[in-house]
Specification:
442 residues; alpha/beta; Rossmann fold; five-stranded mixed β-sheet; four-stranded parallel β-sheet; 54% helix
Length: 442
């Protein structure tokens, strides 16, 4: 009898819940229990999470903790029994969503969420890129193998999985491709809404659709000769490595590939990268840090320090969460963290505040207008040392802070791609609304 994705996932949740000793260490180390208003003993909180996993409901403190999770990952390190509390919290949120909504409502919420992401990603990307660059990022027919000797059409060294939302800030993804080309590796680019990881559907409680989307994407990703996928998006990475791949391993008997974050891939090839860092980049930078994916912050620091001329400054600010957009349930805490970091950066007199991930760049970049330093992505600095540059159109547009001015600026590409004006303006408004901490000048 074939085991379904949903059944295998349920079995994993049950086995992990059974392995949990309810000691409460994961709650004790969590950095968001305070901001999340979790006011109960740690043991009671984790016991409540197990209740939610079983019934979809539990004590208020446990529900608050599940909803406040920003995927920092400290809980994983704290567990002595191999349990992944972060995974259990994610599944607790799924259980609560399934209790709250009937299956038809779950599917509707998931579909609406997916369509919103697809609409905004496609419009913001097309407002910045011509067909040639969209094809290079796998968003137009004709995308093929890329990198050194790609014309041989043999299986690539690996698949580069962008996820969806980095396409809103395409200068980041394009720089990553240029760096890989310089390293002489072959790769196939996959990503965007047509290669969904299923996380949006999972959040709505629609596990069946999430599994179907994820498995379809997974089969496309399993095309490299090395069995390796290099991922950009931490959200997609976590969805695959903590939810999809271990579940599929139970349904199919094996994982089709291993997945490595791009920063860890780049640090692994640092010896090959160093000779390519030929231009001195005299710049004092501070790293905007999120420790949700193990080793990424450390890898980012190593890469920055390999660039000649870079001085890395520690702003002594908390490193919390997976990525900026995971703080949606804690808006006040999100604003506090961002303001404190921006003010600390100003006091430190740095030249640039540097983020790794695209969501952080989207939320922070417009503050460049009001602070005496630049907001950049780490790959821009690496690229500068290698003679690689792509204009950050997203930041330039967002700093305008005006829907009509942005639409007018991008009019040629809007017409070229045949974008609906009303839908385009809605996507621009959503871009401007993604500003948790208001700009200093209003």
């Amino acid at each position: 009898m074939t085991v379904t994705f949903e059944t295998a996932l349920s079995d994993r949740v049950q086995a992990m819940a059974d392995a949990c000793t309810r000691c409460g260490k994961c709650v004790e180390v969590c950095p968001v229990t305070g901001p999340g208003g979790v006011k109960a003993e740690p043991v009671e909180v984790i016991r409540g999470i197990i209740d939610i996993l079983k019934t979809g409901d539990g004590p208020e403190a446990s529900r608050k903790w599940a909803n406040a999770c920003v995927l920092t990952g400290e809980c994983i390190k704290a567990c002595d029994y191999g349990v992944n509390p972060r995974f259990l919290l994610g599944m607790a949120r799924v259980a609560m969503a399934r209790r709250e909504h009937e299956p038809t409502a779950q599917r509707r919420v998931g579909v609406d969420g997916f369509r919103k992401v697809a609409r905004e990603v496609s419009h913001i990307a097309q407002m910045q890129l011509n067909d040639e660059l969209l094809t290079r990022l796998g968003q137009k027919p004709g995308a093929s193998l890329q990198g050194d000797n790609a014309e041989r059409q043999s299986p690539p060294d690996f698949v580069f999985y962008t996820g969806c939302n980095v396409l809103k800030t395409p200068h980041i993804a394009l720089t990553a491709l240029d760096i890989m080309d310089a390293l002489g590796v072959t790769y196939q680019v996959l990503g965007g809404p047509s290669h969904c990881c299923g996380v949006v559907q999972m959040r709505s409680g629609d596990v069946t659709t999430s599994g179907r989307f994820a498995e379809a994407t997974m089969d496309k990703l399993a095309r490299s000769k090395s069995g390796q996928v290099v991922s950009w998006c931490p959200s997609c990475h976590t969805q695959f490595t903590e939810v999809t791949l271990p579940t599929v391993e139970k349904t199919r008997g094996a994982k089709p590939f291993e997945m490595t974050p791009f920063m860890l891939f780049l640090r692994k090839h640092l010896d090959r990268l160093r000779p390519l860092l030929t231009k001195r980049v005299p710049i004092r930078v501070a790293l905007h840090r999120h420790p949700g994916i193990k080793g990424v912050v450390e890898a980012a620091e190593d890469i920055l320090q390999a660039v000649p001329g870079v001085e890395l400054v520690d702003l002594k600010q908390p490193a919390v969460g997976m990525m900026a957009n995971y703080f949606r349930a804690l808006p006040a805490y999100r604003r506090e963290l961002q303001k404190n970091e921006l003010d600390a950066a100003e006091r430190a007199g740095i030249d640039a505040l540097v983020a790794v991930y695209h969501a952080d760049h989207r939320e922070l970049c417009a503050h460049e207008r009001d602070y005496p330093f630049r907001v950049m992505n780490l790959l821009e600095i690496v690229g500068a040392s290698m003679g690689i540059h792509h204009d950050d159109h997203f930041k330039r547009l967002k700093i305008m802070q005006d829907v009509e001015a942005i639409a007018a600026d991008c009019q040629d590409l809007i017409v070229e791609h045949g974008l609906d004006p009303a839908t385009t303006r809605a996507a621009i408004k959503a871009m401007l609304d993604e500003q948790p901490l208001p700009l200093r000048g209003g």
